[in-house]
Amino acid sequence: MLDEGYPLTTESNALRDIVLPPSLLNKILAATGVSGLSAAAPAPFSSPIPWRKAGLRYNNNEIYFDIIEELEATVSRTYRSGNVVASNVWGKILCKSSLSGTPDLSFSLTNSKALRDYSFHPCVRLQKFLQTNQLSFVPPDGNFTLLTYQLPVPSPNPTAPPALPVHLKSTVSLHDYGGTFEITTTARSSKMLENVCVELKLGNSATGADCTYTGSGGQSAGGGFGGLSINGGSVKWRYDPQTKVWLSI
After folding, report:
1. What does the pLDDT read at residue 215?
2. Strands 218-222 and 211-215, bridge-based pairing
3. Residue range 111-130: average pLDDT?
4. Got the DSSP string for 174-205?
5. CA 6: distance to chain centroid?
6. What's the total number of domains in the chain?
7. Domain that residue 145 falls in
8. Distance between CA atoms of 166 and 7, rounded to whole angstroms?
């Protein structure tokens, strides 16, 4: 919603109070030419909290939190192949709230000082977090992102690079009219890994790639792209002629 060209509010809960969504009853009344029977719209900004509607009621009061983290790392190919050059964890806390009234929630993070480049939903009281390291907020109704953050990858040895959940090793051989490369990945953890992606910069002079996968599920080969289903999962590769990157997902 804009006021003289400036954003007045972008909260969906407040906008629903101002602009009523279309309904089947309104369409029938408009088609028959009957007016004055539709329910009156609630007063705009009737809730003192912009991101939460007033008068919410639920039979079962519950709220769910999902923590999703993605690990991104750069691995050395030449010097001590397999060593981590740089790594970061990108995370976010997703919430689904079904709470009645105006609940006021608070909880603490185990090591909030490790968070970097964090960004909160407007419902979080920032000053209280800076003073007490507690997340205190009145949640919006429905789905929302409470927090996004960045974390360094922990390492048991401060002088050594952090260990990744997979070990990655690459071998590249260049010839007069091309070259070959071999990438080996080995899981270091018994936990299931999802959406593992390996990128290899082939260089500006590369024009294509022929790939072969070898593993417990068998062997498969292909040209610019291909795929193989393994134990319910999949391994895919693709050559991008613009970025010169070969992907294995």
Report:
1. 63
2. antiparallel
3. 90
4. EETTEEEEEEEEEE--SS---S--EEEE--TT
5. 30
6. 3
7. 62-152
8. 46
